[in-house]
Design goal:
With 334 residues, this protein is an alpha+beta fold. Helix content is 36%, strand content 25%. The radius of gyration is 35 Å and the shape is rod-shaped.
């Protein structure tokens, strides 16, 4: 549950704070006018400063590490040349050579774009599209955080015997699919709404398929554990309850008695406690883990985590006990 809350908090910070800030910066950059005065090499102005200069050298991208393509340039009136890293090797990078004249666009104290004649190319510091990656991460974390929370809740509310791997695998597969769609949506679409609609559109069939798989798996009969019936030579008493028409469950009858005479439910572990025997007509159908639908058998873990489903004619009888006591129950019901 802590992991789920952590993922949702990170997603909320990205979607609710970082993405709006990045969108506001991009809008301010796109609408900013060019400054009327002379460029200020060390300034952090809100208007766009076009600083003229000369290309000294250029360096292609790739090589060792995630190095971006760059241009080494010297501003007019400057002494030391410096590098400006571009987003990618575009038309401008291919066209310019050392000695060419360029203008570097500065905004808020950073170099945001390079212009050479009619060509323009954004640098790695451009605010254009700066919302895409945090938006992608945020949309990808939302379904993962929700799935982790749902799995933690379902896992905690089930007894140890009723927990199964499919309770993890089915939701996790759905979460991974939705997380992948949510992450790549902002990277392959043009707008926030398009990415959101893509995620929502993918969520409908994925969640429907996941709900169908969970329902089908719950309804599927569970494979019985490897339990061999053992006929007790003497009476054995252990915690357990019987639910069904024969006998009707009585308050305080929380002990099972397995012996040569069959199975009975008793009011207590003492030998002289009142007991209600099960008829010999009760037949075992299957053995399965205790499920949430068996709440009528009592709180989880009180009597046991395993259920022996039986039939007495057209009536259902459930015997609930611990797994270690199943051999004696099966032997007494034979």
């Amino acid at each position: 549950m802590a992991l789920s809350l952590g993922l949702l908090v990170v997603a909320g910070c990205l979607l609710g704070w970082y993405v709006p800030g990045a969108l506001a910066a991009e809008a301010a950059y796109r609408t900013a006018p060019f400054c009327a005065g002379r460029p200020e090499p060390s300034g952090a102005r809100e208007c766009l400063e076009a600083v003229p200069g000369t290309v000294v050298a250029k360096e292609p991208g790739g090589g060792r590490g995630p190095r971006l393509p760059g241009l080494r340039w010297r501003p007019d009136g400057g002494t030391e040349p410096s590098w400006v890293r571009l987003e990618q090797e575009g038309a401008l990078f291919e066209a310019v050579v050392p000695g060419d004249r360029v203008r570097v666009v500065r905004w808020r104290g950073e170099e945001r774009a390079v212009v050479a004649g009619p060509l323009r190319q954004e640098t790695s510091a451009t605010p254009v599209g700066g919302h895409r990656l945090p938006y992608a991460v945020g949309l990808g974390l939302v379904p993962l955080g929700g799935v982790f929370g749902w799995v933690a809740y379902e896992w905690a509310r089930r007894s140890a015997g009723a927990r199964a791997s499919w309770l993890l695998s089915v939701p996790m597969c759905c979460g991974l699919v939705l997380g992948t769609v949510g992450f790549f949506g902002p990277l392959v679409t043009d707008g926030l709404l398009d990415a959101l609609l893509l995620s929502v559109g993918a969520a409908v069939p994925v969640l429907a398929a996941g709900a169908w798989l969970l329902r089908w798996r719950r309804a599927r009969p569970s494979a019985p554990p490897e339990v061999l019936p053992r006929l007790p030579e003497r009476e054995r008493r252990f915690p357990g309850v019987v639910v069904g028409a024969v006998p009707n469950r009585a308050a305080g009858f929380g002990t099972l008695v397995a012996g040569p005479e069959g199975l009975a439910v008793a009011a207590g572990p003492e030998p002289g406690s009142a007991r209600l025997p099960l008829p010999r007509s009760v037949a075992v159908v299957r053995v399965r883990p205790r499920a949430p639908a068996d709440d009528r058998t009592g709180p989880a873990g009180q009597a046991g985590d395993w259920v022996v489903e039986c039939r007495d004619g057209d009536r259902e009888v459930l015997v609930v006990a611990a797994k270690k006591d199943l051999p004696w129950i099966l032997g007494a019901l034979r």
